[in-house]
Amino acid sequence: MSKIIAVMANSVEDIEYSFPAQALKDAGHSVTLVGAQANEKLTGKHGTEFTTDKGIDDINFDDYDALLIPGGFSPDNLRSDDRFVKLAKKFLLTDKPVFSICHGPQLLIQTGLVKGRTLTSYETVQTDLYYAGGIVKDEPVVIDRHLITSRTPDDLEAFNEAIVNELA
């Protein structure tokens, strides 16, 4: 089965990590939570505590099949760290699956690779995607090759179905 990297910083939208990660695990995939450091304690917007499995410097890109970027304020924190930007860029350039929900596409914008891609996000990020050259749709799930994006926690059921199907 597939190995997925989930990237996270503090103030993630708790359910946008936990619900997709559980759906992926239930489908037989493994999810590695990656932060700035291994064994880092992170707190979600709603108080859930998460502990990273690995630090960004501890991973080997070739060992992973897909990237999960949950939303909340986490992607805004991650995009100021060039290591996470480079990781997202590498996934996009190699056309490996990228799953991004809510504010998650903020990290993708930072790669400079959204121009011409069709995607969605939380409504306040949609304008940023547009100005970065993205083709923005206001739909629960948007699939552009192996890039799957979604808008909000309300869309998680459809998002989870799409990402599990992508790896099937």
From TrEMBL:
Q: Which InterPro entries does its entry note?
A: C56_PfpI-like, Class_I_gatase-like, DJ-1/PfpI
Which residue stretches, if any, does this entry annotate as coiled coil?
none
Keywords in UniProt for this one? Hydrolase, Protease
Give the molecular function GO annotations: peptidase activity
Q: Does the keyword Glycoprotein apply?
A: no
Residue span, DJ-1/PfpI domain: 3-165
What processes in GO biological process is this protein linked to? proteolysis
- Whether Hydrolase counts among this entry's keywords is yes
- Member of which family? Belongs to the peptidase C56 family.
- Write the protein's name: Protease
Source organism of the structure: Companilactobacillus alimentarius DSM 20249
